[in-house]
């Protein structure tokens, strides 16, 4: 017998233990310690758990939009469903989705789910994707990119010839690549805002929220790196570590576009890939190159990632009228 548990703060510890220790596709992005950094009035939280005989078998992080639609939590790249290792079979997943949809029909008009992509899961997500698609969900895909790394190999060797040439222009400047200090975070954030403004958008996080993530909520999973040319800021990056899947992910990059003698973004990307390889990560994720749920492809951006040795990866999105 399955039972719905609408989210409340008393479930935080159980929720996070399930996502990080008991699921096949949970990541820190779906934990409450991460999601709860958002102010309580930013989203109308409508997350819920599904329980079987007192044991959590699935988590659905989500919120309700003003038009009555339920959507995988907007405060995270991935939402749900997050499924238990012990309930990851076709029959049990069908029962879980039956229960979830029966509940959602009572609180919303439609549902949009963003399950974790296979790249960040400990098992293949093929079963989740099949079940959703064959329950009448409309499938859309965002195009992401990922590089394969080897600990004793230089990622630069996997870059295209033109990319290697562009990177080598930065070598004579003896750039310093290192951890970003708290005092340098405002500089990074200013350049990040400038970078986002070119596309008429703002960073999802405020500077205070980034500092909160760094020191409190996900201190083990987030890294801030900077590239300097003496006292000149060259570029900065915010990185996420998905230890369970052995993937390092580029969340934000903020280059100094005033530098014209070499390409700051390429110099930064090669340095972060080299560090990730030395740290033992098997893959480096570059994130999506699409907008509007995959409808628009930023081809120059994706081609640039390909020049760094990246291959295509998909983030699926599933939508259904209830």
Textual characterization of the structure:
The strands form three sheets. This protein has an eleven-stranded mixed beta sheet. The chain has a four-stranded antiparallel beta sheet with strand order 1-3-4-7, with helices on both faces. The model has no long low-confidence stretch (mean pLDDT about 95). The protein has nine helices and 17 strands. It has two domains: about 1-135, Aminopeptidase (3-Layer(aba) Sandwich); about 145-315, Gcn5-related N-acetyltransferase (GNAT) (Aminopeptidase, 3-Layer(aba) Sandwich). The chain is an alpha+beta fold and about 325 residues long.
Summarize the structure.
With 322 residues, this protein is of the alpha+beta class. Helix content is 29%, strand content 29%.
């Amino acid at each position: 017998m399955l039972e719905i548990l609408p989210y409340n703060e008393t479930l935080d510890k159980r929720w996070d233990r399930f996502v990080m220790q008991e699921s096949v596709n949970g990541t820190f992005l779906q934990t409450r310690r991460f999601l709860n950094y958002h102010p309580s009035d930013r989203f109308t939280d409508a997350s819920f758990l599904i329980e079987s005989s007192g044991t959590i078998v699935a988590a659905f992080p989500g919120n309700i939009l003003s038009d009555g639609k339920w959507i995988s939590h907007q405060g995270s790249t991935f939402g749900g469903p997050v499924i238990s290792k012990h309930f990851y079979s076709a029959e049990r997943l069908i029962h879980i989705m039956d229960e979830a949809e029966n509940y959602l029909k009572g609180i919303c008009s439609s549902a949009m789910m963003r399950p974790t992509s296979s790249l960040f899961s400990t098992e293949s997500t093929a079963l989740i994707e099949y079940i959703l698609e064959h329950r009448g969900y409309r499938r859309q895909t965002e195009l992401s990119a990922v590089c394969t790394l080897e600990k004793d190999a230089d990622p630069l060797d996997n870059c295209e010839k033109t990319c290697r040439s562009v990177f080598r222009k930065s070598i004579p400047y003896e750039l310093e690549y290192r951890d970003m200090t708290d005092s340098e975070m405002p500089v990074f954030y200013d350049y990040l805002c400038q970078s986002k403004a070119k596309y008429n958008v703002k960073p999802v996080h405020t500077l205070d929220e980034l500092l909160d993530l760094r020191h409190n909520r996900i201190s083990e999973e987030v890294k801030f790196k900077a590239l300097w040319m003496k006292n000149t800021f060259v570029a900065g990056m915010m990185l996420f570590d998905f230890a369970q899947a052995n993937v390092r992910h580029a969340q934000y990059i903020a280059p100094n576009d005033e530098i014209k003698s070499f390409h700051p973004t390429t110099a930064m990307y090669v340095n972060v890939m080299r560090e990730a390889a030395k740290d033992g990560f098997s893959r480096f994720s570059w994130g999506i190159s699409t907008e509007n749920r995959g409808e628009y492809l930023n081809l120059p951006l994706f081609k640039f990632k390909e020049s760094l040795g990246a291959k295509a990866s998909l983030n699926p999105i599933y939508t259904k009228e209830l």
